[in-house]
Design a protein that fits this description.
Blueprint: H1 9-19, H2 35-41, H3 50-53, H4 64-69, E1 98-102, E2 105-109, H5 124-130, H6 136-147, E3 154-158, H7 167-178, E4 185-189, H8 192-195, H9 202-208, E5 213-218, H10 228-239, E6 243-249, H11 258-272, E7 275-280, H12 295-308, E8 316-321, E9 326-329, E10 335-339, E11 342-346, E12 352-356
Parallel strand pairs: 2-3, 3-4, 4-5, 5-6, 6-7, 7-8
Antiparallel strand pairs: 1-2, 8-9, 10-11, 11-12
Helix pairs in contact: 7-9
The protein binds pyridoxal-5'-phosphate and iron/sulfur cluster.
Amino acid sequence: MARDQGEGVDDRRWQQDLRAGVQRAADLRRLPVLEEDRRAAEQLKARIPASTLALIDWDDPSDPIRRQAIPSALELEPLPGEREDPIGDAAHSPVARVTHRYPDRALLYVTYICSMYCRHCFRKESLNEQGQGYSPAALEPALEYLARTPALREVILTGGDPLTLTDAQLREVRERLEAIDHLRLLRVHTRVPVTLPSRVTEGLVDALDGRLQVCVVTHFNHPRELVPEARQACRRLRRAGFMLLNQSVLLAGVNDDLEVMAELCQELVYSLGAKPYYLHHCDLARGVSHFRTSIERGLELMRALRGRLSGVCQPTYVLDLPGGHGKVPLGPCYVEHHAGRDWVLTSDQGERHAYREVLRDATAGADEGSGS
Ligand SMILES: *Cc1c(COP(=O)(O)O)cnc(C)c1O
Ligand code: SF4
């Protein structure tokens, strides 16, 4: 198709959006950023597209978009217990650029470049160390591994941000994966619909569309990010028949508030058609302690959401265990206790209710286990 040949008007728009934004620490000089934060940024990665900068309310020092985009001197103050590889990606890396933790799905790091460097990023240090973009040669061992691992069904393109690749590069990756018969689902984990929605062009959609089901997992954290351009980007992805999910990170000063979280989860569904998938507890990455809330706070928010939002709008609150031990749902748990077939459950109103199981097989579970 004509729009795939070379670069059209659509491509010039997002390229201009990147060029006019912050591309390095020095570019922060033209913005009302604290001197200490600007100096700290010289030791950190910084990139912010112009369209994201335009969403910041500079009169509000705690603006949620500013907090996620503008480097902070606090990032240079790691706490004991924080880790370089917070979720143990390296513990399950059979070959370069792959993390294979679960039998049927694996992460494929197609690039270590992002359209914006999020201040709360849990892969911060791998982005710093690797810093490399897409290269077919670098991916070759990874593609070989995926091809000779028949239990795999899903490949998760991650990084970095996979949607920073060009259309031709995305097409190349998709075609290579399509040629692996046991693969069924192409997952794309990306912040581009949030941070650089102009990049979601028809050409990008065409590049991803093929034999495999496509699931795009976005990363919206605040209702203010759901601007018309982001909405249009998501609409484009859904019109192509791609499944749209969203994962958010629970972030202090951004979305650790019931009204904000409720609006985010509802608008993801109602205005973007994106199902809230995971709400991640903030990982133990170094230098993100100013974003970390307690688990108790997360559970309190989740309890309040349960009574308030439809099931479609509910995310699952998860923690990624350090050391590569995987994701665990944190709850809340509504089972108070149980003894045999008698259970005590807490309703969304906080009341306790007894529930007795009725099973045809009289012996099943009747005398087993005395719950706590
Ligand atoms: C999160 C994660 C996945 C994806 O898990 P889902 O529960 O399917 O979203 C896969 N591999 C690794 C290593 C992960 O951390
Ligand atoms: S886009 Fe994703 S990988 Fe890149 S900095 Fe943001 S959170 Fe990290």
